[in-house]
Amino acid sequence: MVVLTNPPMEQFFMKPSKPSSNPLIIPDIPLIDLSKPESKHHLVKACQDFGFFKVVNHGVPAKFITRLESEAIKFFDSPLSVKQKSGPPDPFGYGNKSIGGNGDIGWVEYLLLNTKPESVYPDNLQGIVNDYVTVVKNMACEIMELLADEMKLQPRNVFSKMLMDEQSDSVFRLNHYPPFPEFQESETNGRKLIGFGEHTDPQIISILRSNNTSGLEILLRDGRWMSVPPDSESFFFNVGDSLQVMTNGRFKSVKHRVVANGTKSRMSMIYFGGPPLSEKIAPLPSLMEENEDSLYKEFTWFEYKKSAYKTRLSDNRLGFFEKSNNILRC
Ligand code: GA4
């Protein structure tokens, strides 16, 4: 395990990216309005083209969100010695600047929690996190069932049952991106500050809610990074690696990253819906066309997770599980 006590400041800046040949057309983030039944028809395309969409009119009561946000602010405002009682992350617990165990760093502090019922959280967060995870998981299941309907998959809980399973290996994360001391454009030469480096999520589906500070960016199919306008009242869903495999590459596990703002704090809360450890992850037979080959070797979520936790954030984790004799859809 790599322990970085004080990484040089220089390492927190992104390498400049090549100017895009197509900078003018910025697509809209797919929007799913749960108050409009016809909105579900956009789900499949959103997962195929972006691996990402925004959900509005979701019905999650604001109190679950605001209570958690204010407790999270209190937690991150407390002295380092108090926060460190919940750490170091192994992988669960409080972490500061160091992400994962393989040398990734970002201008972020976080609390990573296991959502298993027996898990113990820092004071005041226990009930509040449990309540939040329960309502967000229910919304995730509703979306996954609409997706199954749209894909004509039977039973319609084919995805949601993995999140609902008592053994579901789901994770919850609070990220706080604090201001950067003496952050000035002139000193950074316009370079972006790494909050959370580019990566895909290994799980099935991730659901993010943030305060109104920008920072989240997604990688579009044409190779451009697109900044996602923040919206504290909505939830952002992203397809994870496991869902990409279960759909045999039809859905894209979206690469995303967070650029730290430098002057304004960003706070996000993310539920990562994962299957039970023993679950076999493979393309769903009911979805495969006649003579369609699986692009991936079958694996259990335990095997995938074990392998994923040995990688660096930006690595292509699914690469180890691709069947090399197949040509990947792009
Ligand atoms: C990305 C998605 C989740 O935040 C996470 C992350 C995990 C961690 O922070 O410990 C990982 C990362 C994430 C993927 C590769 C490995 C593991 C950091 C890292 C370098 C909790 C998860 O499940 O995978």
Automatic annotation (TrEMBL):
Fe2OG dioxygenase domain location is: 167-275
Q: Which InterPro entries match?
A: DIOX_N, IPNS-like_FE2OG_OXY, IPNS-like_sf, Iron_ascorbate_oxido_reductase, Oxoglu/Fe-dep_dioxygenase_dom
Which Pfam families does the record match to this protein?
Answer: 2OG-FeII_Oxy, DIOX_N
User: Quick check: keyword GTP-binding in the entry?
Assistant: no
Signal sequence coordinates: none
Catalytic activity of the protein: gibberellin A1 + 2-oxoglutarate + O2 = gibberellin A8 + succinate + CO2
What would be an example GO MF term here?
gibberellin 2-beta-dioxygenase activity
The alphabetical list of record keywords is: Dioxygenase, Iron, Metal-binding, Oxidoreductase
Specify the domain of life of the species encoding this protein: Eukaryota
Named in its record, the pathway it takes part in is: Plant hormone biosynthesis; gibberellin biosynthesis; Hormone biosynthesis
EC?
Answer: 1.14.11.13
Q: Which residues cross the membrane?
A: none
Iron-sulfur keyword on record: no
Q: What does this protein do?
A: Catalyzes the 2-beta-hydroxylation of several biologically active gibberellins, leading to the homeostatic regulation of their endogenous level. Catabolism of gibberellins (GAs) plays a central role in plant development. Converts GA9/GA20 to GA51/GA29 and GA4/GA1 to GA34/GA8.
Family per similarity comment: Belongs to the iron/ascorbate-dependent oxidoreductase family. GA2OX subfamily.
Name the UniProt record assigns to this protein:
gibberellin 2beta-dioxygenase
Its ancestry begins with: Eukaryota, Viridiplantae, Streptophyta, Embryophyta, Tracheophyta
